[in-house]
């Protein structure tokens, strides 16, 4: 499944890297694109949306 999520407090490329690592910890095969400019995270994964959102929140980047 593919999710488009808005992450309001993603401000820079370091934030994007942290988000990518947090999501890869949930699904190592996930395809992740995090764009600090638009604050959008696109995730193609086998994990559920709830698991993805929980991983983001745990990393300090809750979804809007």
Architecture overview:
By secondary structure, the protein is of the alpha+beta class. It has one domain: Alpha-Beta Plaits, CATH 3.30.70. It is built from two helices and three strands. The chain has a three-stranded antiparallel sheet with strand order 1-3-2, covered by helices on one side. Helix 1 packs across helix 2. The chain is globular, with a radius of gyration of 10 Å. It starts with a strand and ends in a 6-residue tail after the last helix.
Give the radius of gyration. 10 Å
Task: Give the distance, in angstroms, between the N- and C-terminal Cα atoms.
Answer: 19 Å
Shape category: globular
Q: In the CATH scheme, what's the topology name? A: Alpha-Beta Plaits
CATH architecture group name:
2-Layer Sandwich
* Total count of strands: 3
Count of folded domains: 1
Percent in helix: 25-40%
Unreliable stretches covering 5 or more consecutive residues: none
Q: Count of helices? A: 2
- Per DSSP, what share of the residues sits in E-state strands of 2 or more residues? 15-25%
SSE pattern, N- to C-terminal: EHEEH
* Biggest sheet: strand arrangement: 1-3-2
The helix-and-strand class reads alpha+beta
Highest-level CATH class: Alpha Beta
Rounded average pLDDT: 96
Largest sheet: 3 strands, antiparallel
